Amino acid sequence: MKILDIGEVAAQSGVPPSTLRYYEEQGLVAPIGRKGLRRQYGPQTLLRLTLISMGKAAGFSLPEIARMLGADGRPDLPRDELHARADDLGRQIRRLQLLQDTLRHVADCPAPSHLDCPSFQKLMRQAERTAARGGKHATR
């Protein structure tokens, strides 16, 4: 087993040492020892940091992520919560896709006024329906 010191973990993961120490305080990662004053980590720490990063990107809080990673190092994945978060992300993606489509249309539309453009009006109606439903069923 290759042991990594805090600097190596930081360099390989892109997570600053201060954040590693904070994650340690939060119970997200744990050093396996010290060499002098430098914390030492096992290679599984890099995987945990990737999981933490993915959890944060998905909108989970650090306490939620810590609970999912499990205190004993074994994942405890609340599948219902993961499905709900995936559904939320899907709605957010649809809203962002509609916004992207609208911005591209506005940037490329040759109409003298976007308010008179039928395609722009259609995109605005889609945005209205999406907002009214809370983003649940945006159509393209």
UniProtKB/TrEMBL annotation:
<dbReference type="InterPro" id="IPR009061">
    <property type="entry name" value="DNA-bd_dom_put_sf"/>
</dbReference>
<dbReference type="InterPro" id="IPR047057">
    <property type="entry name" value="MerR_fam"/>
</dbReference>
<protein>
    <submittedName>
        <fullName>Helix-turn-helix domain-containing protein</fullName>
    </submittedName>
</protein>
<dbReference type="Pfam" id="PF13411">
    <property type="entry name" value="MerR_1"/>
</dbReference>
<feature type="domain" description="HTH merR-type">
    <location>
        <begin position="1"/>
        <end position="71"/>
    </location>
</feature>
<dbReference type="InterPro" id="IPR000551">
    <property type="entry name" value="MerR-type_HTH_dom"/>
</dbReference>
<keyword id="KW-0238">DNA-binding</keyword>
